[in-house]
Design brief:
Chain B: It comes from Gluconobacter cerevisiae. Chain B: This is Heme exporter protein D. Chain B: Keywords: Membrane, Transmembrane, Transmembrane helix. Chain C: Belongs to the CcmE/CycJ family. The complex is a heterotrimer of chains A (253), B (55) and C (167). Chain A has one domain: Four Helix Bundle (Hemerythrin (Met), subunit A), CATH 1.20.120. Chain A has eight helices and no strands. In chain A, helix 2 runs antiparallel to helix 8 and helix 3 runs antiparallel to helix 4. Chain A is elongated and about 80 Å long. Chain C folds into three domains: 33 residues; 86 residues, OB fold (Dihydrolipoamide Acetyltransferase, E2P) (Beta Barrel), CATH 2.40.50; 35 residues, no CATH class. Chain C contains four helices and six strands, in the order H-H-E-E-E-E-E-E-H-H. Chain C has 167 residues and is of the alpha+beta class. Classes of the chains: A mainly alpha (253), B mainly alpha (55), C alpha+beta (167). Chains in contact: A-B, A-C, B-C. At the B-C interface, loops of B face loops of C.
Chain lengths: 253, 55, 167
């Protein structure tokens, strides 16, 4: 089968994305570095110690952004899943491949930093309460997605299966969010809610906010970079395949 | 004044892991983008040369 | 109906199915998901002494007694949820966050006399994050005694700084 002009048409959208990524990337990267430097220094050295936890409260400034990013990246995977299943958006499948490992890293870091906080504070590395368990489930959903999307020789089949997994797994997100309200858990309830005043001193809230923005910008920059690279790689592959076909045609002629 | 527990090894481990992972992901992505751009440029240049010699 | 809208509806239907299945499962298992029992639940329907349960609640102010027996600390304290209190016995080192007024979760068994023998005690942190200076100031001015429960409404202290609290 010869590549048709249709193929170029398919790349119109990724082309647009590449232009967008080129404009946004310097801003995302610069913003991430500035916010993270400020946030980490503030969180580690300037923010006050908690009256009970002492300095161990500083783990929160990396733990909470990781939890937020693990959930948001999974939401991103689910949106990619809908775009892929319903609209067959070519960019969505590439994005799902690239978002998965980043989200899995965030989920793993959330679990590890939480464990590092729990050992000195609760007195245990791990308990099987609803919040911790549902977060672990999210990590395994990421691992399943990463494996599934690469499991088939024919990429389209793996992408379809992974999109379905991403959509089914989205049910875990509200469970994580509300687990601390619905059930008795060892994990504390959320300090920051949409409805009430935060039960946290402003002197701790500011570094937390800045760290969260910094890590979010950083993850956005990483995903944009990975996706741009993936588009370039797939274009190079397409050109190689086409040149091989051309050669075969010219040999046949 | 009450006793405040300090657990700097746990704090240091958390920050080192998180920032280290972020750095590895970021630098890895940037290197990958540079490599893929170079490869695409090479493939495109190759294709253009062949087209010119064919015509 | 175009193929795209049909696919969209299939996706929505599948999501609804998975969602309701999960909701029903969680409802059915909700008593198992509960990490701990409250003292009033334990008092109302005491579990058999051979069943290990988790007991959660607040350490009652003035109820903690620590003695040292051959080098190992032996602790006795009451855990309450405001309605009932259970006497807990625990041999071992309590976690850093343990204090009167703190929420704790104890793993162990209910004895025949209604007491609770714990094999493990975990401190449960609450959602309040307060600088030490602010806490000291609230305690000094008598606005809050941590031994009797949760911190006052956050809006009354969340903008207090070390300088304001100290001065």
């Amino acid at each position: 089968m010869r590549p048709t002009p249709n193929l170029l048409h398919r790349y119109a959208n990724p082309g647009q994305f590449l232009r967008l990524a080129r404009t946004l990337l310097p801003w995302l990267t610069g913003g991430a570095i500035v916010f993270l430097v400020v946030g980490v220094i503030w969180g580690l050295f300037i923010a006050p110690a908690d009256w009970q936890q002492g300095d161990t409260v500083r783990i929160m400034y990396v733990h909470v952004p990781m939890a937020w990013l693990a959930s948001s990246c999974y939401l991103g995977l689910a949106i990619c899943g809908v775009l892929s299943l319903v609209w067959r958006h070519p960019l969505a499948d590439l994005a799902a491949i690239e978002i998965g490992p980043v989200g899995a890293c965030a989920a793993a870091l959330c679990l590890i930093t939480g464990s590092l906080w729990g050992e000195p504070m609760w007195g245990t590395w791990w308990v099987w309460d609803a919040r911790l368990t549902s977060m672990l489930v999210l990590f395994f959903l990421y691992l399943g997605h990463i494996a599934l999307i690469r499991a088939f020789d024919e990429p389209a089949r793996g992408q379809r299966a992974a999109a379905i997994l991403a959509l089914a797994g989205v049910i875990d997100l509200p469970i994580i969010k509300f687990s601390v309200q619905w059930w008795n858990t060892l994990h504390q309830p959320d300090s920051i809610t949409l409805t009430g005043a935060p039960t946290m001193s402003m002197m701790m809230l500011w570094p937390l906010l800045i760290c969260t923005i910094g890590f979010t910008l950083g993850v956005a920059a990483v995903i944009f970079t990975r996706l741009s690279a993936a588009i370039h790689e797939s274009r190079a592959r397409q050109m190689m395949a086409r040149s091989r076909l051309d050669r075969r045609d010219s040999q046949a002629a | 004044m009450m006793h405040l527990p300090n657990h700097w090894p746990y704090i240091a481990a958390s920050y080192a892991l998180t920032l280290g992972c972020s750095l590895v992901l970021g630098v890895g992505a940037a290197l990958r983008l540079r490599k893929s751009k170079a490869r695409l440029a090479a493939v495109e240049g190759h294709a253009r040369r062949r087209e010119r010699s064919a015509s | 109906m175009t193929r795209k809208t049909r696919r969209l509806w299939i996706v929505i239907a599948c999501l609804a199915c998975v969602g309701s299945a999960a909701a029903l499962t969680l409802r059915a298992f909700s008593s198992n998901i509960v990490f701990f029992m409250a003292p009033s639940q334990v008092k109302a329907s005491p579990p058999s002494p051979d069943r290990t349960i988790r007991l959660g609640g607040m350490v009652m102010a003035g109820s903690l007694h620590r003695i040292n027996e051959n080098g190992t600390p032996v602790n006795a304290f009451q855990v309450t949820d405001g309605q009932a209190a259970v006497e807990v016995h625990y041999t071992g080192i309590l976690p850093d966050l343990f204090r009167e007024g703190q929420s704790v979760v104890a793993l162990g068994t209910v004895q025949k006399d209604g007491g609770f023998t714990a094999s493990e005690v975990l401190a449960k942190h609450d959602e309040t994050y307060m600088p030490k200076e602010v806490a000291d100031e609230l305690k000094r001015t008598g606005k809050w005694d941590p031994r009797f429960g949760k911190a006052p409404d956050a809006s009354s202290w969340d903008t207090m700084t070390a300088k304001k609290a100290g001065g």
